[in-house]
Amino acid sequence: MSSSIQVCLTLSAVLSLAAGAGGVRAQTAGSQAAQTFNKQIVKTVSARYQLYLPEGYGKDANARWPLILFLHGAGERGEDVEKVKAHGPPKLVAQGKKLPFIVVSPQCPTNAWWSNETLNALLDDVMKAYAVDADRVYLTGLSMGGYGTWALATEYPDRFAAIAPICGGGTPRTARRIKDIPAWVFHGAKDEIVPLTQGQEMADALKAAGGNVKFTVYPEAGHDSWTQTYDNPELFAWFLQHKRPAAKQAIATPPAQPPANKN
What we know:
The structure is a single chain. 25% of the residues lie in helices and 25% in strands. It has helices spanning 88-94, 116-129, 144-155, 196-208, 226-230, 233-240, 245-252; strands spanning 2-11, 39-52, 65-71, 102-107, 132-142, 162-166, 183-188, 213-218. An 8-stranded mixed beta sheet has the order 1-2-4-3-5-6-7-8, sandwiched between helices.
């Protein structure tokens, strides 16, 4: 499945000076003056992705389902979206495992990196088209997708209820942006592709910012720390324990109830 989404970008400022002859804005020759500019740019972004709908989806028109956005590693980039099934949740459901989530697994193009703009637009598109619980959207990825997980979460921190980056890294100074999002970080101690320090630095930065972070290190694992992570049902149970922080706060403070009528 592929999706194309148009994104409108507006450059700030307004052209306030009238255009003179030949399209040149009115200004005295030999002078310097402040100008402003405004133009709308329409950009089309697209993505191929695997979509999994859980058993029971659609039976209750009022039901809203949790969603997992899965970001693959560099080896699954390309134009054949079937490659996305090599690892992670799309591999599990391809093998017949039933997950209680909508699973969206996009494919990154050849020689490209994950685009936050494209992923954010894809999420918007999927959430309009399917019965998604906006307060239970989870983000996870491995290797290049682990980096993508950190990057997307820190750019759009209000979207996600919890994240699980695997053998990836990020920019520690941005960790404070996601201090309210529970994170479960995974890494192999013997990873020679993405050093353990990459995951450790992000987990430490998030903890220092007051975040809710778990950090699991597999002592004997190399770069492949994702197989045992996604094979562990505890990860999916952990996801379901969390809702977006704002939603959680609303649940924690229910409206006052009138006294019970004892008559």
